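Aim 2 progress update. The chain analyzed this quarter is reproduced below.
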Amino acid sequence: MMFNEVPFLDRFGAAAEAGFQGVEFLFPYEYPVEALVERLGRHRLENVLFNLPPGNWSGGERGLTCLPGRRDEFRAGVETALAYATGLGTKRVHAMAGIAPAGANPAELREAYVANLKYAASECARHGITLVIEAINTRDMPGFYLNTQQQAYEVLQEVNAPNLKMQMDCYHMQIMEGDLATKLRKYAPDCAHIQVAGVPERHEPDTGEVRYGYLFDLLDNIGYDGWVGCEYRPAANTADGLGWFHALSSQHAGV
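Predicted structure tokens:
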């Protein structure tokens, strides 16, 4: 979502030049593994996260995990994602829940969702990879199957796989439920990745209604040691909006 001023493969260099040590992206599948490995190595970056194949993205699909009757396609996507993850050294992949079809039987959706997550988590575990699920707000993605942290936590309990974790996006969380600090404290032990963006415009995290400085300090205080992904749309040029990041980097230099 950032550095869209340059083509995808050039964004690695732009991110490194801006001071980032890791990158995440939605999907790597348009590019050979070797091309991505070369860019990561050249710029000394870690690929932190990407999504499993989402189905027909251009047609509006946002994941296959909850969709009955798509098991074989989902499993093929897991295989494809793991080929990329092992090649890139990626330690986390995200299984998007998907858009619940109108009129679908809730029990069938749940059965498909849990069964697919059990399969994907088992396959990921063979490679030492963590599988994450993310609650997404219904304003940006109407009909998305997973919407709150409590729902995500309940799924973790039902699947009962040690390498299945929550991906907590503070932007989506603020829109759907608020109470960010309390939820971060509550679910941090079950969280493997956090994302940030300003609310409500989804621009830089130093804009909007959420005071991220407080939340970043909270994450330090509760011992969260994972990555924080910047999943926001820059209001203008990406580099021009990174003052918040440079200030935070200087504050924590050497820590």
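The chain has nine helices and seven strands. The chain has a mean pLDDT of 97. These observations will guide the mutagenesis experiments scheduled for the next reporting period.
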